[in-house]
Design brief:
- The complex is a heterodimer.
- Chain A is globular.
- Chain A is mainly beta.
- Chain B has one domain: Beta Barrel (Lipocalin), CATH 2.40.128.110.
- Helix content of chain B is 15%, strand content 49%.
- The chains are: A mainly beta, B mainly beta.
- The interface between A and B is medium-sized, with 33 and 19 residues.
């Protein structure tokens, strides 16, 4: 692999995105909808979610355990009051990355990783949410699945989600249509982990257009989505259509076990020239045996079938992460992951180590070191520093 | 009355005047409230006591120590319950309505108790299970459901997330004798 290619690949593989915290199960939050406008989590924070961000995630800088969150936690530090029916927010994220291949530094650069604003409406049973963001020209390979504009040489507008829906059953259910985060697996923010890239269910650009129904009850939650295709992707032959969904049960307040499935068909599968059926079936676990420690696991079986010639191939992707909160707001993160792609490609093994500090509700910093080895290729290493801002 | 008889009489009177006999060895209380979207709010305390007199068992739960896992939420709970004015919840169950376990014969039944909470008293159905354990101890597991509005408690609401007025309470208590 050429160094420049390796650098681009690493840049694609090792960026992260703030916003999804399945580790909140450490505080007994097995569900997502109280804190996020998306019932399956990972998106814009509700006012309640903003409060939890200060009360549970961030360093509190001397504030008492029973103190109310600061008004500065609100949108734009509280300078722009918003009515109850409207939720506003946004993200900016910058990073600096160093990549090595076979122990040799091949790339280092500043990354503009995210610049999105978001809004959500809540009028009676009506729910709607949308994001609109800026993607630099250099990030094109990693944002084009969410493009609104289609410049091949300059920056583009991106929209990771935009949907409208109706809540039902006392807000425990939501039916919606539009561009939606795919309901599958852990909605972990390490969107470059093998489990996210292999299943194409990351929170960076893998959203799809479709219709979804989500239900969240006290001890279980589910979402199933009819995928009608990613309409940011052209031509139509590449668009996948099918179903995706998960069911997660919580027998205890700090344990959640789930299953996921995704079945899609495209006339021209990515990486192939003919109609392709893509399947993924996963099991997930989230557990917090001790409040400072959260374990997250996902194991996915991957099956890709080239339709017409009967060729099916199988693989897998796996993820096991430990998140240890050593001080309030300071997390030590480590993970091991594996992947064998369908189609007979070489197996890969990855190790993640790092730390994240939620400095205050509008800002966190994170450092990741990732080492990946693939059979027959030199090992790659990445060190990534990130600054995540939240409006 | 000589001094000896006076002392005996005083001891007898003090024994009769004792309002209740504390029995508990260990206990847990879990209070479960629910919010929108499957939100589950669990409050826990280890402070629960059981006393008995001639006619009833009296369970008492101090409300201030109930811990929901979030300091501010604890404060909101205490404010909602006006703990400064009404520090305890008590449940009084008549002995005559209860079945008591024997060795190797646990009992499980339902009884109506009188719950005093937030300065209001209401009759509530209580499901319970009691069994004798080693060392002459008795383990009691009881559960009840209540509606906050029956006790003039305004269901807490915070930043658009309102708690449902229906609340479940579970008590697990190990006591001497019974």
């Amino acid at each position: 692999m050429k160094p420049a290619g390796a650098a681009l690949l690493a840049m694609a593989l090792f960026s992260t995105a703030a916003g999804a915290y399945p580790s909140m199960i450490r505080h007994g939050y097995t569900q997502c909808g109280a804190c996020h406008t998306d019932p399956s989590g990972g998106t814009l924070l509700t006012p309640y979610g903003r409060a939890q961000s200060e009360l549970l995630l961030s360093t509190r800088w001397g504030a008492g355990k029973e103190d109310e969150p600061s008004a500065k936690d609100d949108f734009l530090f509280g300078l722009v009051p918003t009515p109850d029916f409207l939720t506003l927010g946004g993200w900016f994220r910058y990073g600096y990355i160093w990549n090595t291949v076979g122990g040799t530094l091949v790339d280092r650069r500043l990354l503009q990783m995210r610049g999105d604003v978001a809004a959500a409406l809540r009028l009676g049973p009506l729910r709607a949410a949308a994001q609109l963001g800026y993607a630099s020209a250099s990030s094109a390979p990693f944002t084009e699945l969410a493009w609104v504009t289609r410049s091949t040489n300059d920056a583009n507008l991106v929209s990771r989600e935009h949907w409208i829906g109706l809540a039902f059953a006392d807000d425990t259910g939501l039916v919606r249509g539009g561009r939606i985060y795919l309901p599958f697996g852990l909605r972990n923010l390490e969107h470059t982990s093998f489990v996210r890239t292999a299943t194409r269910t990351d929170i960076n650009q893998d959203q799809q257009d479709g219709i979804a129904v989500a239900i969240a009850k006290e001890s279980w939650r589910m979402e199933v989505m009819a995928i009608l295709g990613n309409y940011s992707l052209r031509p139509d032959a590449f668009r996948e259509r099918g179903l995706s969904g998960y069911l997660e049960v919580s027998p205890f307040s700090r344990l959640a076990l789930g299953v996921s499935a995704l079945v899609t068909r495209a006339d021209a599968g990515l990486g192939s020239e003919g109609p392709t059926l893509r399947q993924a079936y996963g099991v997930t676990a989230r557990a917090s045996p001790w409040t400072p420690l959260v374990l997250l696991a996902e194991v996915d079986a991957l099956i890709t079938t080239a339709l017409g010639n009967g060729g099916a191939s199988a693989g897998h992707a796996d993820w096991l992460q430990a998140d240890l909160e050593v001080l309030r707001g300071v997390h030590i993160l480590s993970a091991v992951e594996g992947m064998k792609p369908p189609g007979g490609g070489p197996s890969s093994l990855g190790f993640w180590g790092g730390a994240a500090w939620f400095v205050f509700p509008h800002l966190d910093v994170r450092a990741d070191w990732i080492r990946r080895s693939t059979t027959g290729s030199p090992a790659t290493g990445t060190f990534l520093l990130q600054l995540n801002g939240y409006l | 009355m000589n001094a000896r008889n006076l002392l005996a009489s005083l001891l007898l009177l003090s024994s009769m005047a004792r309002p209740a006999l504390a029995l508990e060895r260990a206990g847990d209380v879990t209070v479960l409230a629910r919010g929108p979207g499957g939100l589950r709010i669990e409050g826990k305390s280890r402070e629960v006591s059981l006393a008995e007199d001639a006619s009833a068992l009296l369970f008492k739960v101090p409300l201030a120590p109930i811990d929901t896992g979030i300091g501010l939420r604890n404060r909101h709970l205490r404010e909602s319950l006006e703990v400064d004015k009404f520090p305890d919840a008590t449940l009084r169950v008549r002995r005559s309505d209860l079945q008591f376990p024997q060795d190797r014969s646990p009992v499980e039944s339902q009884v109506t108790g009188e719950l005093m909470l937030h300065g209001h008293s209401r009759a509530v159905p209580v499901h319970y299970r009691a069994e004798r354990t080693a060392g002459g101890l008795t383990r009691i597991a009881g559960s009840l459901q209540l509606d906050m509005r029956d006790f003039e408690i305004v269901p807490p609401s915070y930043l658009g997330v309102s708690v449902s007025p229906a609340v479940e309470v579970d008590i697990d208590l190990t006591v001497d004798g019974l």
